[in-house]
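Work Package 4 report. The design task specified in the project plan requires that, given a folded chain encoded as structure tokens, an amino acid be chosen for each position. We show below one input record used in the internal validation round.
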């Protein structure tokens, strides 16, 4: 789960909306900038030759922000810091997370190393820092098979340009312009980001519910395919057993006839040829046992519910324990006779819509009818499972359908 969430997060952070990006053909656009001023002072030497340290020193102590009213985009705050010991920090705050990149002092050469910590994901990744020929301070990390790139560049007009991308999703960079901010503006921006964070969490929760519903539906389909295969195997096995029993009966009949001719038997008092006491001796094939009435069918239905504000778990709706007459062979060890599993399923499905309506009547909506499932007492050891199928958390609900 954590790996999947982190990959989704990497995709989100590198596809940051650039509603303030420079227009095509402008002097400050990515294609048209021929020289970049670091800390407002143009350098004669190539930016790449300066190394990350020179760029970081020029940005240290400065805060930049990007504010948007686009419901599909998010605001961002960027802060560059330098400790008295010479190490650097890049703090990026947005709705999805707060990430802090720590860069140790004393590094030399064109390539530096850093570590980025994601607060909400409680995750660390190792960055490689370098300066491109056009002045971008680029940071790249690879973790769990996912790669993310982002970069920063100070423009001559004092704006900061940020770019990001995930190479697995395409070569395009997502560009964002951020403006310098003072302390008062920073406080206002943090309040805006807090509002966006609430909306972002709600969207993520909704997406998670959809993914969980799809996963549950796939599990249900796989379970049905499995039991369908088991049922087919049981039919084949039953036919084979019947053939063997028929052959044995024919052989025993022929042998008995020959023996009767040689040694006439004395009838058992009170027992005629069609007497049930005699027929009971022929039950060793298992066919008669399979046709015997089964134990009572007992089951509990369940379905997942949508979250509400304040929920601490993903809630479920449970039915009471329902009891119905069991089909032949129900509750006995071994394979069920042909058609018994289908009859049991029909008994459950007959109550499905009544159960879902009762769950909705509690004030909560179900995630999907595809998440409907049940537990029943097919085998001798299943009674305990049925007894344990009940509400466990305050968000869970229990309804009576019978």
């Amino acid at each position: 789960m954590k790996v999947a969430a982190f990959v989704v997060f990497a995709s989100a952070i590198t596809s940051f909306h650039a509603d303030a990006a420079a227009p095509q053909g402008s002097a400050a656009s990515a294609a048209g900038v021929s020289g970049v001023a670091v800390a407002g002072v143009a350098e004669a030497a190539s930016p790449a030759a300066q190394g990350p340290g020179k760029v970081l020193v020029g940005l240290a102590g400065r805060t930049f922000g990007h504010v948007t009213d686009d419901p599909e985009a998010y605001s961002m705050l960027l802060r560059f810091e330098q400790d008295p010991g010479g190490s650097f920090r890049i703090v990026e705050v947005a709705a999805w997370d707060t990430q802090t990149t720590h860069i140790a002092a004393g590094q030399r050469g064109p390539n530096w190393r850093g570590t980025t910590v994601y607060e909400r994901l409680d995750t660390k990744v190792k960055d490689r820092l370098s300066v491109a020929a056009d002045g971008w301070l680029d940071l790249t990390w690879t973790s769990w098979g996912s790669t993310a790139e982002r970069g920063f560049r100070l423009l001559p007009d004092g704006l900061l340009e940020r770019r990001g991308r995930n190479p697995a999703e395409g070569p395009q960079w997502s560009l964002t312009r951020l403006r310098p901010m003072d302390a008062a503006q920073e406080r206002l921006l943090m309040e805006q980001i807090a509002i966006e964070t609430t909306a972002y969490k709600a969207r993520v929760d909704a997406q998670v519910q959809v993914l969980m519903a799809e996963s549950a539906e796939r599990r249900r389909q796989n379970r049905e395919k499995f039991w369908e295969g088991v049922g087919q195997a049981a039919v084949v096995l039953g036919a084979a057993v019947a053939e063997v029993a028929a052959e044995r009966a024919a052989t025993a009949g022929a042998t008995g006839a020959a023996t009767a001719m040689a040694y006439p038997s004395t009838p058992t008092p009170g027992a005629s040829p069609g007497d049930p006491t005699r027929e009971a001796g022929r039950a060793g094939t298992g066919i008669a046992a399979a046709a015997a009435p089964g134990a009572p069918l007992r089951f509990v239905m369940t379905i997942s519910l949508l979250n509400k504000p304040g929920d601490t778990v993903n809630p479920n709706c449970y039915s009471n324990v329902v009891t119905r007459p069991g089909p032949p062979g129900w509750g006995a060890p071994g394979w069920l006779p042909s058609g018994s599993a289908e009859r049991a399923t029909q008994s459950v499905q007959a109550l499905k819509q009544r159960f879902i309506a009762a769950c909705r009547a509690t004030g909560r909506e179900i995630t999907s009818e595809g998440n409907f499932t049940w537990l029943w007492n097919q085998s001798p050891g299943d009674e305990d499972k049925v007894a344990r199928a009940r509400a466990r958390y305050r968000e869970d609900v229990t309804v009576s359908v019978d």
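The chain is about 35% helix and 25% strand. Validation will be extended to a larger panel in the next phase.
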